[in-house]
Design goal:
single chain; 510 residues; alpha/beta; Immunoglobulin-like; TIM Barrel; 2 domains; eight-stranded parallel barrel; seven-stranded antiparallel sheet; 9 helices; binds alpha-L-arabinofuranose
Length: 510
């Protein structure tokens, strides 16, 4: 049984701020089987590869138009010394990855391999430098090695390692989680370090670097305030060119008190609703961090980069606890849609976001089956695929004058319908999520301001909340054409199945 139709007003002629494609960004850490076994199999592998990089992984990520890739961490970034990862592979020093699983790190995947991967993907590199255990000189030389043209000791070293032309590196991270694994620093101490390190992350030639300071965890608004004090200069003209241009925010769904709660595939309906309540918290976090930022930067020149987000479950049975390998179900996909609606609504401040992580770790896009080598596209992957039309589109507000249905979760209320929309190139994309576990909902899209000449819809859902894809069944959860919609006097009536994500593409008359 559905409730009364939900009235959703979209003014197609009133586009808002641009939703950067970079909010659909990704993150690859030297952690578990993300880099090794996920991206990198080595040139001698039986797995089809391009210079050691899994060809099917590249193809799958190109399909979702991966805009950027953050690397090498995470916590690993603050232990990583880039010079260990250049030169002939067999001669590279080995180390122990103490953060993640205490396994050997061969350094076979280093700077050149990462840049080759980004070139194959057509993605912008986002290199995360080492502040926690590195030096200013080390970071400065890495930027020089990567991006400088002409003559210099680092350029000569790069050329000796086989790369003549400089690369373009638009995004640079100044350490990671400085409040935790990145050095257990106090906010003011880190803020000064961020200014110092950023100074030596130079723009070489035409390469303009967007420097991202390691921002807050979840609701640590004091951390954001300390960074804003360090970077802003209210009313002064040098503000946009301050030492760093953005700060990050990390928020994981279901990682409470430092521990994940529950398995990816084993949960009750109550657990599911609680997860959705926690996922929806991203909106409040973005709003409140933005409010702090607004008071120092009212013109919103400093970006907020949510460079780690997603679900964090207990690892799959029999896997290394330090590898953070988890299945990915329809529930994870709906966590993603709720995040994207929030990012779309806050496009003016949220300039980038990176789901954690791309392959085989946490809320992954792709899983690689160790036994068969099969590549599995997760339900979360399909959300990214369905949303490519939101990339660099202008946001459209979705007004819900009558509100939306709710369910009670403990003392709180969860809104069970979430929506956002955008427009570009003579079309619009409306995203509609029904979080209700059992009940379909009908949404009446009241489309104003422009004539709609045609429409089509797709739906992502599954037999159950924990439906997922596996090597045995790679398409249990996959987008399908959605036909439960019809034109009405008011616009378009769309029926959303229980626990589903629907996108409606509208063609607009010119
Ligand atoms: O994504 C896994 C880890 O989570 C990252 O290394 C760290 O930054 C965060 O705590």
């Amino acid at each position: 049984m559905t409730t009364a139709p939900i009235h959703a007003v979209v003014n197609l002629d009133l586009p808002g701020p641009t939703i950067s494609r970079h909010v659909y960004g990704h993150f690859a850490e030297h952690l578990g089987r993300c880099v090794y076994g996920g991206f990198w199999v080595g040139e001698d592998s039986d797995q089809p590869n391009i210079g050691g990089i899994r060809a099917d992984v590249v193809e799958a990520l190109r399909e979702i138009r991966i805009p950027n890739l953050r690397w090498p961490g995470g916590c690993f970034a603050d232990e990583y010394h880039w010079r260990d990862g250049i030169g002939p592979r067999e001669a590279r020093p080995r180390m122990v990855n103490t953060h993640w699983g205490n396994v050997e790190e061969t350094n076979h995947f280093g700077t050149h391999e990462f840049m080759a991967l980004c070139e194959l993907l057509g993605a912008d590199p986002y290199v995360n430098g080492n502040v926690g255990s590195g030096t200013v000189q080390e970071m400065s030389q890495w930027v020089e090695y990567l991006t400088r043209d002409g003559d210099s000791p680092m350029v000569a070293l790069r050329k000796a390692n086989g790369r003549e032309a400089p690369w373009r590196v638009p995004f640079w991270g100044l350490g990671n989680e400085a409040w935790g694994c990145g050095g257990n620093m106090r906010a003011e101490a880190y803020a000064d370090l961020a200014r110092q390190y950023a100074t030596f992350v130079r723009d070489h030639g035409g390469n303009k670097v967007y420097r991202i300071a390691a921002g807050a965890n979840t609701d640590d608004y004091a951390w954001t305030e300390a960074l804003m004090k360090a970077v802003s200069c209210l009313g002064c003209s040098r503000q946009p060119n301050g030492p760093f241009q953005a700060l990050s925010l990390h928020y994981y769904t279901n990682y409470g008190e430092g521990v994940p709660t529950g398995r990816a595939t084993e949960f009750s309906t109550d657990d599911y609703y609680l997860t959705m309540l926690r996922a929806g918290r991203i909106e409040e976090l973005v709003r409140r961090h933005s409010a702090v930022m607004d008071s120092y930067d009212p013109h919103r020149r400093i970006g907020l980069v949510v460079d780690e987000w997603g679900t964090w479950w207990e690892v799959e049975e029999g896997t290394n606890p330090g590898f953070l390998f988890q299945q990915n179900t329809l529930r994870d996909a709906l966590v993603a849609t709720v995040h994207f609606d929030a990012f779309h609504r806050h496009a003016e401040r949220v300039v980038m976001a990176n789901i954690a992580q791309t392959v085989n770790v946490l809320q992954a896009m792709l899983l690689t089956d160790e036994r068969t080598g099969t590549l599995i596209r997760t339900p979360t992957y399909h959300v990214f695929a369905m949303n490519t039309a939101h990339h660099d589109a202008r946001g459209l507000a979705v007004h819900l004058p009558g509100g939306v249905p709710t369910v009670e979760v403990g003392a709180e209320k969860l809104s069970t319908v979430s929506a956002s929309a955008s427009t570009k190139d003579g079309a619009a994309l409306v995203s509609l999520t029904n979080l209700h576990a059992e009940r379909p909902e009908t949404v009446t899209l009241d489309l104003r301001g422009r004539e709609v000449t045609d429409y089509e819809a797709r739906v992502l859902t599954g037999e159950s909340l924990n439906a997922h894809n596996s090597a045995a069944r790679t398409d249990a959860v996959t987008p399908r054409p959605h036909t439960a919609l019809k034109a009405s006097a008011q616009g378009l009536e769309v029926t959303l199945p229980p626990h589903s994500y629907v996108t409606v593409r509208l063609l607009l008359a010119s």
